[in-house]
Amino acid sequence: MNEAASPSGAGDIADLYSRTLRELARDPAHQGRPASFDATARGDNPMCGDRVDIYVSLDGERIREARHVARGCEICQASASLLTALVPGMTRAETTDLGRRAAGIAKTGIGDDSNDGLRRLSVFAVVHKFPSRVKCVTLAWNALDAALAGVKETSSE
Amino acid sequence: MDTIIAPGTAATFDVARIRQDFPILSTTVHGKPLTFLDSGASAQKPRAVIEAMTRCLETSYANVHRGAYALSEAATEAYEAARVAVQRFLGAAEPEEIVFTSNSTVAINLVAHSYGRGVLKPGQFVLTSEIEHHANMVPWQMLRDENRGIGLRYVRVNDRGELDLDDLAAKLADGKVGLVAVTHMSNVLGTVTPAAQIARMAHAAGAKVLFDGSQAAVHRHVDVAAIDADFYVFTGHKLYGPTGIGVLYGKRALLDAMPPFLGGGDMIGSVTLERTTYAEAPARFEAGTPPIVEAVGLHAAIDYVTTLGMGAIEAHERALVDHAMAVLPRIEGLTLIGGAQDRGGVFAFSLDGVHPHDLSTYLDRHGIAVRAGRHCAEPLHARFGLEGGTTRASFGLYTTAEEIDLLTVKLTEARKFFA
C-alpha cells in the first residue's frame, strides 16, 4: 500500500501528549478569573471553538500576575497554563518576543534552552509534527498580546 | 436459470469491490490503512471521475460557448451534457433549470443576491433554521443587515435534532415569509428534513422554498419535482466529484424573473458602452469561463452513483447507520448529538473527558480521519450547549461496518489514553 501524502512527520501520539504537557494542561495554579485585573482579552479559534480568556494585573509596565480561563484541548490549556506561569515580571515587548519564540518552537520543532522559560516552552516542539495543532499553542499568546494592546478580542486566524 | 438481481438493489452492492474504484482508499496514513470517516466534509473520488477529467484535459479541452472549432465544440458539448446529467439526476423538467456555480455556498449566495435582492420585497422575511450550515445562514444575515427591510426568522430545532414543524407553521402564519431556506440533511446531526412537507407548508403560506442538499443529494435519491422544490443546491465534491463545481436548480419561471448575480462574459445578450442586455437562464448566472473540466468530472460522478443506484447506496448507508446507532451509544462516556428518526450517516458526538481536537489527533494516528470542531454550524452547537465543538464521523458509499467497529475500538482506547 502507498503511504498517503502526509505532513511533516509521523509524530507519535504519546510524544505529543507527554506527561509534562498533560500536567501543565491540568495545572490549576493560574486558572480562573481573578477578582480584579488591569487588562483582559479573549482569544477564539473559530474553527474548533477553543477559547482562552487572559487576565493580567500590572505594576507599571510590568505584569504582576496573569491568569487564564481556557476552554480547549490539552495543548491549548497547557499553553495557557505555561504562559501565565512565565510572564509575571515581563513587559509587553518581552511577552510579545516570548510569544513569537513559543510559536517558532511549535512550528519548527527546534527547542531552545537559552533560559528556563524557553526550555519549558520547548515542550511544544513536538507540535510541529502535528501542523494543524500549532494554533492551539499560539491562541493564548495572541490573547495576551491583545490584552496588553487594549484589544478585547482576537483569534487564532 | 440464473438468479436475476435487479441493478441498484442492495444485493448487488459489493462494497469491497466498490472500494477498489477509489485509489486513495488503498493508501496508508501513519502506516495504518486509511479509515476515511470525513466524507461529509468532502468525499473521495472514484477512478472514473479522475480519468474522465484527465481525458477531457488530454483530448477535448478548450473554452466553451465561443469557438467555432472542433475542440471548443467538443468541450461545449461535454459541458452541456453535464447539465443534462444533473437535470436527470435531480428530476428537473429541463436543463435550463440547472445553473453551474462553484459550490453550494456560491449557489445560495446567488439566490440571496438575485432572488433576495431582486425579487423579495421590503417587509418580507427569509425563514431559515437553527440547524443550518453557515452557508445557509450567513448569506441571509447579510441580506437582512443591508437595511432593505427584509427580515430573517429561524425555525427551532427540537432536542432530537429535528425541525420543529409547529414552529415552522407558526413562523409562516402571517404570510410575510417570502422564502424558506432550510437544509435537506444536517451536516452535524444527520437529520433528514421532510422536504415535501416543508415545501407544501411554505407554498400554502405563499413562500418559495430552497433546500440545501449538500448532504442529502449524496445519500438519497432526490427528485425536485416530487418535493416541489423551488430552489435546490448541492456541491460536486461531496458527491464523489471534483471541487470547484456546484449546482443551483431553480424553477424556470423563478430563474427567468431573477436579475443576474455576477457580471461578465458569457452572461450577456448584447453589450454596448451604454447598456447590456442579459442572456436567458442559465447563462445569465454563469458569468466568466465556467468550471469545464469540473463539469465533466461531476458528470462522471453522477454516472458512477447512478450506475450503483442511489437506492442501493441509500440501503447500504441505512445499514451502516443502524450499525452505528447500535454500537456507538454503548461506548462509555460517549454522547451522540441528536437522534432524529430520519437520519443519514453523519454522527457528531462528544466523548467525556476528551477534547474533540485531541481525539481527532489520536484517531488520525490510527489512520482514522474524522472532523473536530463545530463543522460550520456554530449556532447549532450553541443550541445543544456544545460551544467547545464535537467530533464528527461521516460515511460515504464506500464506508464499511468494519470501519465503524474500528472507530468504536479506538474511541474506547482514546478515553483510556486521556483519562
Automatic annotation (TrEMBL), chain A:
A Pfam family that the UniProt record links to this protein: NifU_N
Domain NIF system FeS cluster assembly NifU N-terminal: from-to ranges: 17-101
SUPFAM superfamilies: SufE/NifU
InterPro entries reported for this sequence: NIF_FeS_clus_asmbl_NifU_N (IPR002871)
Top-rank lineage group of the source organism: Bacteria
Name of the protein this chain belongs to: SUF system NifU family Fe-S cluster assembly protein
Species in which this protein is naturally found: Roseococcus pinisoli
Phylogenetic lineage: Bacteria, Pseudomonadati, Pseudomonadota, Alphaproteobacteria, Acetobacterales
TrEMBL record, chain B:
Catalysed reactions, as listed in the record: (sulfur carrier)-H + L-cysteine = (sulfur carrier)-SH + L-alanine
Pfam families the record matches: Aminotran_5
GO molecular function, one term: cysteine desulfurase activity
Keyword check for Transferase: yes
InterPro entries: Aminotrans_V_dom (IPR000192), Cys_dSase_SufS (IPR010970), PyrdxlP-dep_Trfase (IPR015424), PyrdxlP-dep_Trfase_major (IPR015421), PyrdxlP-dep_Trfase_small (IPR015422)
Alphabetized CDD domains for the sequence: SufS_like (cd06453)
Top-rank lineage group of the source organism: Bacteria
Entry EC no(s): 2.8.1.7
Name of the top EC class for this enzyme: transferase
Residue ranges occupied by any Aminotransferase class V domain in the UniProt entry: 36-407
Cofactor(s) named in the record: pyridoxal 5'-phosphate
NCBIfam families per UniProt: sufS
The family this protein is said to belong to: Belongs to the class-V pyridoxal-phosphate-dependent aminotransferase family. Csd subfamily.
Name of the protein described by the UniProt record: cysteine desulfurase
Species annotation: Roseococcus pinisoli
